[in-house]
TrEMBL record, chain A:
<protein>
    <submittedName>
        <fullName>Amidohydrolase</fullName>
    </submittedName>
</protein>
<dbReference type="GO" id="GO:0016810">
    <property type="term" value="F:hydrolase activity, acting on carbon-nitrogen (but not peptide) bonds"/>
</dbReference>
<dbReference type="Pfam" id="PF07969">
    <property type="entry name" value="Amidohydro_3"/>
</dbReference>
<dbReference type="InterPro" id="IPR032466">
    <property type="entry name" value="Metal_Hydrolase"/>
</dbReference>
<dbReference type="InterPro" id="IPR011059">
    <property type="entry name" value="Metal-dep_hydrolase_composite"/>
</dbReference>
<feature type="domain" description="Amidohydrolase 3">
    <location>
        <begin position="68"/>
        <end position="556"/>
    </location>
</feature>
<dbReference type="InterPro" id="IPR013108">
    <property type="entry name" value="Amidohydro_3"/>
</dbReference>
<dbReference type="InterPro" id="IPR033932">
    <property type="entry name" value="YtcJ-like"/>
</dbReference>
TrEMBL record, chain B:
<comment type="function">
    <text>Zinc chaperone that directly transfers zinc cofactor to target proteins, thereby activating them. Zinc is transferred from the CXCC motif in the GTPase domain to the zinc binding site in target proteins in a process requiring GTP hydrolysis.</text>
</comment>
<comment type="similarity">
    <text>Belongs to the SIMIBI class G3E GTPase family. ZNG1 subfamily.</text>
</comment>
<dbReference type="GO" id="GO:0016787">
    <property type="term" value="F:hydrolase activity"/>
</dbReference>
<protein>
    <submittedName>
        <fullName>GTP-binding protein</fullName>
    </submittedName>
</protein>
<dbReference type="Pfam" id="PF02492">
    <property type="entry name" value="cobW"/>
</dbReference>
<feature type="domain" description="CobW C-terminal">
    <location>
        <begin position="226"/>
        <end position="316"/>
    </location>
</feature>
<keyword id="KW-0378">Hydrolase</keyword>
<dbReference type="InterPro" id="IPR051316">
    <property type="entry name" value="Zinc-reg_GTPase_activator"/>
</dbReference>
<keyword id="KW-0143">Chaperone</keyword>
Length: 586, 317
């Protein structure tokens, strides 16, 4: 690791480096995403910005004795990618938190008791013992009723919570119930329940599905070391796949702290817009209002900002809780659910818009996005032009709303990246054939002049952005698992490149200084192992290898170890990058 | 949500492919039992309905002339349940088949969600086991088998011609837990009464049709039929003793129903619902008359009335 935190800040009269170009990249086929000059052969970079984009000859005047020059040997280059909705913390941090892992396939109650006691000994104190897993079957065999009565005999004085193997229930002891304030009078959540004694109504210590959240809310936050490791690996992976900017949608003060420590260490090799969670349904945000009133600026740098808020407006397609414009198929009245009233979201959009904070609103149903666009329209009426808000997921959109994205300056963000046939994608196609025809309607938004971006929404879909990139253009399964194309219309390669680059920059409000290869813009560029314009996208784009990622003129990723000379040495090396799935790239 | 209907009892039937679930469901769907039963299956592929019975059919629902409905769960159990509940002619009973790949405990949990509490009640969870194949399960199938058994109220061992007594015995040793209620059969020949609790407890139920009323003087053998046992007493019972006693009932006693007078809740009537190894005792409204215990129990073949009487009298507080 090469700590290259830039401390030479550039301002009107200071910070400019001496001499001419710092770095010249030549002999490349560069697709610039600048309509004025779509293709170039070479770029010159100084102080993190492009100072020339053009033919090789144009670079001559910009070269001096300190200039480094790299011959890209005819390879294809383009602006870096923008993943506008993802969650490395939710994907990885729980696994890194050093929670209790009983470590047996079918542990008996005795095995679990021993594991709890061992964990308590190696983690002394009065803190939570949280982990996995127990198996209902082995409790039945041992003639023990799982619940707080048994767990209290094992560990009475520290809170304990153990998940079951099939993730359907959680067993907690009395101490955990008390800390979570779960009593006979506690109402059940809508998406689960508290198992109770049928006579006394007291909780038995078995919590089903959505009732876990009460325990999670009472537990201390995910440890800082786990959050930091999760984000660091996410950043590493994203840089290695050419991502230069991303949105981590759902943060709290602890997550911002972890992100700041990565940034402070000079390891934030992409731009991060972090969105503060408006609800406590994933994790509690204790300092929400402090963050919104200004504490968020404490974390601010060129690479990190928390000037966004994430709303969980409606539900998901799998459970028919997405809020549709008309009842779900087979239902007379059920249109899905909203977690916030339309008035709540309208007032909040108006308020946050005035504060300069972007609202990223989870809207999977076409009824939810209709209401969200109405809320933005009200903000525009009250505040005039303001922040570019973001309609997250946009799984279904009403035809009538396609033009409103442009009119209201709202980003249509499409995620997760599953617009190709897969078991996973088909499980989300229940809203009726008519609606499915326009699933993930990139084309509709783009044709109406709006801005569409993509988000991997990891762990809901793969964090490798190239899979969504390919399938935007093909709507087919990249591995050939299914022969038929998926619902919805493909877009052209040129359109998809814009979605992956300049559109992302627009959705972050930085399109004037990043997102395309133009003089004066941030020198963000990726060099690929193939030319996207000279291949059949189906099966050949998702496995693109990024050879080099340049971020603000700095080489942050160097797959082939071409830049071992100290001054250009990449921040991340190929042997450091984790693999999270079997099918990440091939 | 409407409260004017009493909740529809639901029985969940789990088992791997080939265990005999389909044979059983086909028999129920085509049977002449006079019940409006809705059967929810994973897909219609396995189901074989007599075409002459079909009154109407749409994509995911088939109506039969015997009052039954057969529907597919497709990908969404919650939605199909809502559909069944909101039918103008509500089914009297719902049977849900869980496929060989899905976890029946998740289905049972869903039925207990607050949104269904006034509408549905879990009557029984039955695991159909093919003793022949059970010992060779590994990996995820082994885990799923544990899920099926751990949530089961009644375990049906469906013997094929191939299963030897030793296989059945080895299944019992490896897989069964204390106080499991087991029903052994062949060709999935499971009495409907075992699956649908309502049948046996009806007031106009005629013992001659499918059962016999046992009493303390009754020591004869009644094979291949249901026997019932009734118990009444006006002394209050201890909740913990009663729970313990009901758990330890004989293996062939499958159902019990009635009201009890508990020392822990003397002013309120408490309802008992026992299916196999699951016992539910719930507090209901205040006593309208003198409190008393009134239980009816149902077993297969033979019930030892004296033993049951003793077991219940031991519960006095």
């Amino acid at each position: 690791m090469n700590s290259t935190k830039i401390t030479n800040y550039l301002s009107s009269h200071t910070g400019q480096g001496p001499g001419k170009a710092d770095l010249i990249l030549t002999n490349a086929r560069i697709y610039t995403v600048d309509p004025g000059r779509p293709w170039a052969e070479a770029v010159a970079i100084k102080d993190g910005r492009f100072i020339a984009v053009g033919g090789r000859a144009e670079m001559d005047a910009l070269r001096d004795e300190h200039t480094r020059e790299v011959d890209l040997q005819g390879r294809f280059a383009m602006p870096g990618l923008y993943d506008m909705h993802t969650h490395p913390d939710l994907s990885l941090a729980p696994g890194y938190a050093d929670y209790l892992d009983v470590g047996l396939e079918s542990p008996t109650p005795d095995d679990i008791a021993k594991a709890i006691l061992d964990y308590a000994e190696s983690h002394p104190g009065d803190g939570w013992i949280y982990g996995s897993y127990f198996v209902h079957f082995t409790f039945r065999q041992a003639e023990i009723e799982p619940g707080c009565e048994w767990l209290d005999t094992v560990m009475p004085d520290r809170p304990v919570a153990i998940l079951d193997r099939s993730w359907g229930s959680m067993m907690v002891n009395s101490k955990a119930l008390a800390l979570a304030n779960i009593t006979a009078d506690t109402p059940d959540p809508g998406n689960g329940f508290i198992q109770r004694d049928s006579i006394t109504g007291e909780a038995t210590g078995i919590l089903i599905d959505g009732a876990y959240a009460m325990i999670h809310a009472a537990m201390p936050p995910t440890p800082q070391h786990a959050l930091k490791r999760a984000y660091r690996e996410g950043v590493q992976y994203q840089s290695s796949r050419g991502v230069v900017a991303t949105k981590y949608v759902h943060v709290c003060e602890h997550r911002l702290e972890a992100l700041k420590s990565i940034d402070d260490a000079g390891e934030m090799t992409l731009r991060v817009e972090a969105a503060i969670s408006w609800q406590d349904d994933i994790f509690p945000v204790k300092r929400r209002w402090e963050l919104l009133s200004g504490e968020r600026n404490y974390y601010r740098s060129a690479r990190l900002n928390a000037n966004a808020v994430k709303f969980h407006f409606d539900g998901v397609h799998e459970t028919r809780s997405s809020y549709l414009s008309s009842p779900w198929p087979g239902e007379e009245k059920w249109r899905g659910g909203l977690n916030l009233t339309p008035e709540h979201i309208t007032d909040m959009v108006v308020d946050l818009d005035r504060r300069g904070i972007r609202v990223i609103s989870h809207c999977t149903g076409d009824g939810a996005s209709d209401l969200f666009l109405d809320a933005v329209a009200e903000a525009r009426r009250v505040n005039g032009g303001g922040v570019r808000h973001q309609c997250a997921h946009s799984t279904l959109l009403l035809e009538e709303n396609l033009a409103r994205f442009k009119e209201l300056n709202v980003t249509a963000e499409f995620s997760p990246a599953v617009w190709y046939p897969s078991d996973f994608a088909y499980a989300r196609t229940q809203a009726g054939e008519e609606k499915m025809k326009t699933l993930y309607n990139f084309k509709g938004v783009l044709d109406a002049g709006g801005v569409a971006v993509m988000g991997t929404d990891w762990p809901v879909s793969n964090i490798n952005p190239w899979i969504g990139f390919e399938t935007m253009v093909t709507r087919k399964n990249p591995w050939g698992d299914y022969s038929e194309p998926f619902y919805g219309e493909p877009i052209s390669l040129e359109q998809a490149i814009k979605v992956m680059t300049i559109n992302g920059a627009w959705s972050m409000g930085i399109e004037h200084k990043a997102g395309s290869i133009e003089v004066g813009k941030s020198a963000d560029l990726i060099v690929l192992d193939r030319n996207l314009f000279e291949l059949e996208p189906q099966g050949n784009l998702h496995n693109t290898r990024v050879d080099i990622t340049v971020m603000e003129g700095e080489i942050v990723w160097d797959r082939l170890d071409q830049f071992e000379q100290a001054e250009l040495e990449a921040v991340w090396k190929s042997d450091q990058v984790p693999t999270f799935y079997e099918r990440m790239e091939d | 949500m409407s409260k004017k209907f009493s909740p529809i009892p639901v029985t969940v039937i789990s088992g791997f492919l080939g265990a005999g679930k389909t044979t059983l469901l086909n028999r129920i769907l085509n049977g002449d039992h006079g019940r409006k039963i809705a059967v929810m299956v994973n897909d219609f592929g396995e189901i074989n309905i007599d075409s002459q019975l079909i009154v109407s059919a749409e994509q995911s629902m088939v109506n039969l002339s015997n009052g039954c409905i057969c529907c597919t769960v497709e990908s969404d159990l919650i939605e199909q349940l809502h559909k069944l509940i909101s039918l103008r002619e509500r089914p009297e009973y719902i049977l849900i088949e869980t496929s060989g790949v899905s976890d029946p405990s998740k289905v049972v949990n869903t039925l207990c969600y607050p949104q269904f509490r006034q509408q549905l009640t879990v009557d029984a969870v039955v695991a159909i086991i093919d003793a022949d194949n059970f010992s060779s399960l590994d990996g995820d199938r082994r885990k799923l088998a544990m899920d099926q058994l751990s949530v089961a109220d009644i375990v049906v061992i469906n013997k094929t011609d191939l299963a030897t007594t030793r296989q059945v015995e080895s299944f019992r040793q490896q897989w069964l837990y204390p106080y499991a209620r087991v029903f052994e059969t062949q060709f999935a020949d499971i009495p409907v009464e075992l699956l649908l609790g309502t049948e046996l407890f009806e007031t106009n139920h005629s013992p001659s049709k499918s059962g016999h009323q046992c009493n303390a003087n009754c020591d004869h053998n009644h094979n291949q039929q249901f026997a019932t046992y009734s118990w009444e007493s006006d002394q209050p019972l201890s909740l913990s003793k009663l729970r313990h006693a009901l758990k330890q009932l004989p293996e062939n006693l499958y159902r019990a129903k009635g009201f009890v007078y508990l020392a822990e809740s003397p002013k309120h009537r408490c309802k008992v619902h026992l299916v196999g190894s699951r016992v539910e005792i719930e507090k209901e409204e205040r006593w309208q008359q003198m409190p008393k215990n009134q239980l009816v129990m149902i077993g297969w073949n033979n019930l030892d009335a004296a033993h049951l009487n003793q077991a219940l009298e031991n519960c006095y507080s």
